Structures are given as structure tokens and as C-alpha cells.
Recover the amino acids of this structure.
């Protein structure tokens, strides 16, 4: 599937936008290939916008996990799903809004994000169970809402944030 793109806003190097001015605004098909492409585009846009490299790495890691969760779970089995993404950059932080038209979160709330139990036997290692813990650890103000049949996930990422 080809990614549907809306306007990607650029940010001048000498003046970051206010937090309510998205640096990036994009709409993409909810499939793995399109997500991979949009993550590469976001990385390039952040470079042009002079966003801190450490913040970019953390942002990309969190966004990759969130977007892949959307594709694998909310949009599972669909060929016509859509993801909308807005990212604003401010001094030392990113704020993100991810929207998709897929299935709602179970029970209408975010997963707890508890770490999977890990045994000593390598064959017993779980395949999943790490993503929501990582998302919760690396973000703040994580919030999920379901509005008009769309999932809305918002969060902020701070430079130098050290989880407690």
C-alpha cells in the first residue's frame, strides 16, 4: 500500500514552533510498509527541523512501537485502515498525537504495561509483552481516548527524561 500523505510542515532551524504548531502532520495507510516509510520521513524532518538527536532517537523508538501496535492490533486484518499523526517540537520535548480508525483498546483503556515474566530457560522467553512497558517508561502524559470511532493516543517525550 502506498502511504497517503498530508502536509508535512517544516520548521526553521533558528526558531522552533510553539507546542501547538505541529512540526509534522501526516496521514498514512495502516500497514507495516507505510509505517516504516513514514518513520524514515519523520527522522528526516526532525533533522531538517534541528530537533535534538537524543530526543529523535527516543521519539522514533516510541513511535515505532505505537504505530506497529496500531497495525498489528487495532487494524489487524484490515486493508483500508488509516493512521493520522501529529508531532510538535518544543525546547527539549516532543508532543505526539496518534489517531487511527481501528478497533478500540480492550475495555477502552491502555494496557497496564507490566513487564512479561522472564524465566531462566531461553526457550521460555515471551515473544511480546515489552512494548507498552517501554512506551509508558519513555513517555509522560500518556492518554487514550476513543472519539467518533477513532482511537486517540497522546503523549509527550522529554529530552533527558529518566524513568523512576
Amino acid at each position: 500500500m502506498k502511504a497517503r500523505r498530508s502536509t508535512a510542515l517544516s520548521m526553521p532551524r533558528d526558531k522552533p514552533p510553539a507546542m501547538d504548531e505541529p512540526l509534522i502532520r501526516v496521514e498514512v495507510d495502516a500497514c507495516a510498509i507505510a509505517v516504516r516509510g513514514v518513520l524514515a520521513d519523520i527522522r528526516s524532518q526532525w533533522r531538517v527541523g534541528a530537533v535534538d538527536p537524543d530526543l529523535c532517537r527516543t521519539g522514533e523508538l516510541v513511535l515505532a512501537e505505537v504505530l506497529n501496535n496500531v497495525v498489528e492490533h487495532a487494524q489487524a486484518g484490515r486493508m483500508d485502515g488509516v493512521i493520522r499523526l501529529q508531532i510538535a517540537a518544543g525546547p527539549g520535548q516532543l508532543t505526539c498525537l496518534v489517531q487511527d480508525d481501528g478497533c478500540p483498546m480492550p475495555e477502552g483503556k491502555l494496557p497496564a504495561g507490566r513487564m512479561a515474566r522472564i524465566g531462566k530457560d531461553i526457550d521460555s522467553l515471551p515473544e511480546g509483552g515489552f512494548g507498552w512497558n517501554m512506551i509508558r517508561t519513555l513517555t509522560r502524559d500518556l492518554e487514550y481516548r476513543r472519539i467518533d470511532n477513532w482511537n486517540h493516543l497522546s503523549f509527550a517525550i522529554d529530552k533527558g527524561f529518566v524513568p523512576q
